[in-house]
Amino acid sequence: MQNIIEQFSEAIRQAAATHQPLRLRGSGSKDFYGGSLSGTVLDVRPCRGIVSYEPKELVLTAYAGTPLVEIETLLAENGQMLPFEPPHFGAEATLGGCIAAGLSGPRRAYQGAARDFMLGVRMLDGRGDLLTFGGQVMKNVAGYDVSRLQVGAMGTLGLLLEISLKVLPRPVAETTLRFDMEQAQALDAMNRWAGQALPLSASCHHDHALTIRLSGAASAVQAARLKLGGTMIEEGGQFWRGLREQTHDFFDAEMSLWRLSLPSTAQPLVLPEKSPVTELIEWGGALRWCKTRADALTVRAVAEAAGGQATIFRGADKPAGAFHPLPVALLEIHRKLKQTFDPHGVFNIGRMYGF
Amino acid sequence: MSKQQLVSQLLSFLPANAVLFDAEDLKPYEMDGLSAYRQTPMIIVIPDTEEQVSKILRICHAAGVPVVARGAGTGLSGGALPLGNGVLLAMARFKKILHVDPLARIARVQTGVRNLAISEAAAQYGLYYAPDPSSQIACTIGGNVAENSGGVHCLKYGLTVHNILRIRMVTMEGEVLEIGSEALDSAGYDLLALMTGSEGMLGVITEITVKLLAKPERAQVVMAAYADVQKAGAAVGDIIAAGIVPAGLEMMDRLAIQAAEDFVHAGYPLDAEAILLCELDGTNEEVSEEIKRVHDILLASGATSLRTAQDDAERLKLWAGRKAAFPAVGRISPDYYCMDGTIPRKQLPRVLARIGELSQQYGLRIANVFHAGDGNLHPLILYDANLPGELERTEELGGKILELCVEVGGTITGEHGVGVEKIGQMCIQFKDKELTLFHAVKKVWDESGLLNPGKAVPTLQRCAEFGAMHVHRGELKFPDLPRF
User: Fold this and answer.
1) pTM as predicted
2) How confident is the model at residue B36 (pLDDT cuts 50, 70, 90)?
3) Which one of B189, B190, B402, B423 makes the best mutation probe of the A interface by having the most chain A beta carbons within 10 Å?
4) For chain A, which end, N or C, has fewer CB atoms within 10 Å of the first or last residue's CB respectively?
């Protein structure tokens, strides 16, 4: 592995010296996500393999190029899981891509996001220097939290080599329930239920139906099922996988797919008349997927008015910027942080913002 | 700018009771929770609006005067230790709970609100704020964010960083920034994570939006006694391997048990080498099911006795001993020094054995209190500051324990922060390149370097000296020189 890391380091130094930026890439399963792709591809997959995993410690460390499938299979064999249920978006998806994209799945509102389970990284910065932040322990406040900063940074701050994550036991029992409800009623229900001692682990509203998942001790799931009512869905596992991997019918369309991150109690969205919107809601109301032909300015204005932000997840209008624009002062901090980690502008230029 | 000039500038927009500069007024602020370090600040400013904070920082920035922000001053690493040539910015008047939204399960509060006050305000809705550092009756939420505070329930409910959504802060240049939102994620880099635990080095926090959780229907605790510390440590792994994530999982060793029992009479077995306190919470059914499983696991792991709290009063009593462990140790020794390393749990037997050897070697007693679930160890070194040289030997022993934590793959601080206390050990945890990057990250937010200078991240120069000091067993050549 030392050899591979040295090769990467050398490639970074070369790129800096020749002003030829790199495009860090695993399997490319998330090439569709974020801003523009540019630069010479540096395939991180030679850096792969599980470094250490001890179920009793609830910590897993793996090289960034390790396929997510390999990690999740090993965890499942030991009755554990990545609690944030990351979407793969491709059979070969890597751990590094998962962390760089920082995306989380259905369990996010109830168990936490990718960033919440980050414990430590080894990485190469834009000078080709090998740096270590965080560690393999659950509580660690030595130094700034640079490892968590990498989650969702789209590889713009460095090349992730080795990642340590906190993992959790898989719930003993899981049940999926469905209720006939319109959106406003479902938003209210999801928020009210989340404020009660119920073992909720996922929620989704779409097409006049609210679907929820209960996870935990068998008796707790059973008790909550009796309390809430609804119809039990046999194919629950498949339904949530469909949301996580976006193979659900909703995601199958030629319109732009927007990802709106809003306060969970935000009212149902209203877009101008000429741009009808189809919605799928997750995360107890905090994540709203929208298919619309409305332009970026319109969608973003609606998201901002609701106290949130809008990302173009898939599809057109990328010139408007995939990610929600930042206020000037925060953009300046981003620019300076980028400059700090990657002074020569080597990594994934344009993948997040313009730098 | 002279002290007099600065005072008059501050008094031009602040009331007289918000600017302290007489020696007798300054004295009470000379230290935080780490009493071994004291320094009287030049001036103390106690604003009550964000606008005032911004103006104070702008003035200090222009005058080149360093600023240290302070919440309740309960921190244990000297992060709020004043500077003799600086302004201490006391945020104690930011006490308003601005909004509690029970449906969205969030609370927007000012930075000086006490940790426990948030849970008290949320209680009427069946909600609470999860992180519960032991100082929660006094410590402020702003300080919690600055230190990324934990508590006894971190394994299941996370640290401060997992339980906040948004902050408002002011930079050293006086600019107000808002980071995060009421949504679960925000565009761009995770600046909220970067700010959390940054020890007041990057900005002064004025307002925080926290997440509130539903109060569990029921909580129950089991106490297990062990004749062998190693068996107690192994039992922790067994519980987790069984797929159970307890709300709290604490361990105390013999000396800690005895001190606590003597103080609060929690009913701990005095003949035990170690006890475990395992708390389970959740729905009624869940707790019943899991408590039974934990019971079986603890018995199989070699517990010599088990006690399950039958009601909430008994549960609180069992916890009272653990929560009073620090003051309890304070009763059996003139002084104690609390360490805060985290280790991979499997290393516990090795680390405890080595701590025992070090205790012998230095002739200082050590009581061990351990957030066993997440590997966070709090050895309490018992000493007497009135005996010449004993504080120095205590600090040296403490340093050795932290170095041991790093050696076994852990960290020098799990939840108390680096502050001034562990700045030397930062040189062991990190290499020059990482430290250089930390300094660069600070510059992104605070180009002038005037905000809480000398804390949290050592200079490379300091590390070079620290390395040399190691060779000479702690004998500093110029003890009066500032060494950050």
Assistant:
1) 0.95
2) confident
3) B189
4) N
